């Protein structure tokens, strides 16, 4: 496993195809990092599907309201919900949307990110300074690359579990 420098700011996502280790960037986007840890620690992300997966672009997940295959699951509505927590203000930075970075998914309003996020399959620099980058995959990108494609996929992959490394 990758060397984890800061367990409190590292997320481990278990997928069907393996573990994905994400290093959060609290110096860049503290509110987004805190939100991801809060939702991970509450178990809200466990069982949530990747509802929008575009080859060569990104894999989106995190709809804890409609995207959880274990409770109140509605695939056709997955991607339209968030958490019960308030939306987050944008935390744009100069960090580019490179392959493996984690971006905050949002609606048209830049301050509408909540629980959804995406993992970039490739360098998507057209997103720079328009979507908050708050983490990067440091191990397990091969598991991300195997996520089933579709908008939504017919049989979507899910995050089996999402944990803060300090808690495992």
Automatic annotation (TrEMBL):
UniProt enzyme class = isomerase
Describe the reaction catalysed, as an equation.
[protein]-peptidylproline (omega=180) = [protein]-peptidylproline (omega=0)
Give the molecular function GO annotations.
peptidyl-prolyl cis-trans isomerase activity
Enzyme Commission no = 5.2.1.8
Give the record's GO biological process terms: protein folding
Recorded hits in InterPro entries, A to Z, give: Cyclophilin-like_dom_sf (IPR029000), Cyclophilin-type_PPIase (IPR024936), Cyclophilin-type_PPIase_CS (IPR020892), Cyclophilin-type_PPIase_dom (IPR002130), Cyclophilin_A-like (IPR044666)
Q: Where is the PPIase cyclophilin-type domain?
A: 18-147
Q: Name the UniProt key words of this record, in alphabetical order.
A: Isomerase, Rotamase
Entries under Gene3D superfamilies matching the protein: Cyclophilin-like (2.40.100.10)
Checking SUPFAM superfamilies in the record gives:
Cyclophilin-like
Q: Which PANTHER family match?
A: PEPTIDYL-PROLYL CIS-TRANS ISOMERASE-RELATED (PTHR45625), PEPTIDYLPROLYL ISOMERASE DOMAIN AND WD REPEAT-CONTAINING PROTEIN 1 (PTHR45625:SF4)
Q: Which family does it belong to?
A: Belongs to the cyclophilin-type PPIase family.
| Function, as annotated | PPIases accelerate the folding of proteins. It catalyzes the cis-trans isomerization of proline imidic peptide bonds in oligopeptides.
Name recorded for this polypeptide: Peptidyl-prolyl cis-trans isomerase
């Amino acid at each position: 496993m990758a060397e984890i420098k800061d367990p409190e700011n590292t997320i481990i996502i278990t997928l069907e195809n393996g573990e994905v280790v994400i290093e959060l960037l609290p110096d860049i986007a503290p509110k987004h990092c805190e939100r991801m840890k809060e939702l991970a620690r509450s178990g809200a992300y466990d069982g949530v599907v990747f509802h929008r997966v575009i080859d060569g672009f990104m894999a989106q997940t995190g709809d804890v309201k409609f995207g959880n295959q274990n409770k109140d699951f509605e695939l056709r509505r997955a991607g339209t919900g968030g958490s019960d927590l308030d939306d987050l203000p944008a935390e744009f930075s100069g960090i580019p949307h490179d392959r493996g970075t984690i971006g905050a998914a949002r609606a048209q309003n830049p301050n509408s990110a909540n629980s959804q996020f995406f993992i970039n399959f490739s360098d998507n620099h057209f997103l720079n300074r328009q979507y908050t980058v708050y983490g990067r995959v440091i191990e397990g990108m091969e598991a991300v690359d195997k996520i089933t494609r579709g908008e939504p996929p017919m049989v979507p992959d899910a995050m089996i579990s999402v944990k803060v490394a300090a808690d495992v």
